[in-house]
Specification:
This is Mono/diheme cytochrome c family protein. By secondary structure, the chain is mainly alpha-helical. The chain has helices spanning 2-16, 24-35, 58-61, 64-73, 87-99; strands at residues 43-44, 47-48. It has a two-stranded antiparallel ribbon with strand order 1-2.
């Protein structure tokens, strides 16, 4: 039940990073974030894990190429997802993460 509650709140947090006129790529990317377990290590808007960095403002600090490189190559204790995600899925995930632009505290 607790896992279900966490997934629900993470999905809400993920959706809140999207502007009202969000493209479907960003929506698919938000779903990929949840469905691939990214929330187990990463937080977005206070929902998710704490092993990896908070990604609430990743779109303000990294450009799309930098986000793509991190997803594909991993590093800093993050595994590579190059053999797990398809190119279109990486594109969608990058679009979503780049749309997360909360100001850093």
């Amino acid at each position: 039940m607790n896992l279900l509650r966490s997934a629900f709140f993470l999905a809400l947090a993920a959706a809140s990073c999207l502007p009202a006129s969000a493209e479907s790529a960003k929506q698919r990317g938000a779903a990929l974030f949840v469905n691939n377990g990214c929330q187990h290590c990463h937080t977005i808007r206070k929902a998710g894990g704490v092993k990896g960095p908070d990604l609430s403002g990743v779109g303000r600090t990294l450009n799309k190429t930098q986000i793509r490189t991190q997803v594909l190559q991993g590093g800093h204790e993050m595994p590579s997802f190059a053999d797990i995600l398809k190119t279109a899925e990486v594109d969608d995930l990058v679009a979503y993460l780049h749309s997360c632009r909360d100001k850093r505290k």
